[in-house]
Amino acid sequence: QRDFNQKIDYVFKVVLIGDSAVGKSQLLARFTRNEFNIDSKATIGVEFQTKTLVIDHKTVKAQIWDTAGQERYRAVTSAYYRGAVGAMLVYDTTKRQSFDHVARWLEELRGHADKNIVVMLVGNKSDLGSLRAVPIEDAKEFAQRETLFFMETSALEATNVESAFVTVLTEIYRIIS
Ligand code: GDP
Ligand code: MG
């Protein structure tokens, strides 16, 4: 997507966080390029991708940052969080451990990011229904308690991916406008 000759009203930085292999890079590829790559390594080294969309007649450029393999606890630096107005906190619905680590990621985020940051808890790989290890109610309850948005997504089947990002971007817009 090209921004050539396009007037940008807002740039919103959104960060992707969560354990390794939960599907962060694929969610990004799906949202920004409508792609899903079996070989995820292809996106390593890319700091962020952008997508321009219109919200309330304004042109908003979403600048979405990917961790590029720095998901070890506390390896993500404060530069990553700097200036972020939104965050997608991703876990894998088929990996209980990735959900158990969500509280830790949230703590990291709250320690580094702006207080008003808009956070979406994302349970990815909803296409793998038979392998579900995290009940949707557990995630909903956590999100409610921590005042986060929540959605289950599938980067593979393109379910709720657009919706999750657009919800966050629209909420950011609502807050700052
Ligand atoms: P990251 O480490 O969080 O960036 O995770 P990746 O995006 O690299 O994805 C890790 C693995 O999960 C890859 O093998 C992907 O193909 C796979 N994956 C990502 N999203 C989905 C999804 O929605 N459904 C399924 N079934 N697999 C997915
Ligand atoms: Mg990745």
UniProtKB/TrEMBL annotation:
Locations listed in the record: Endomembrane system
Protein's UniProt keywords contain GTP-binding: yes
Membrane topology: Lipid-anchor
Predominant cellular place of this UniProt entry's protein: membrane
Alphabetic keyword roster: GTP-binding, Lipoprotein, Membrane, Nucleotide-binding, Prenylation
Keyword DNA repair: no
GO molecular function, one term: GTP binding
One GO cellular component term noted in the UniProt record for this chain: endomembrane system
Family as reported in the entry's similarity comment: Belongs to the small GTPase superfamily. Rab family.
Protein name as annotated: Ras-related protein RABA4c-like isoform X2
Whole-protein coverage range: 5 to 181 of 224
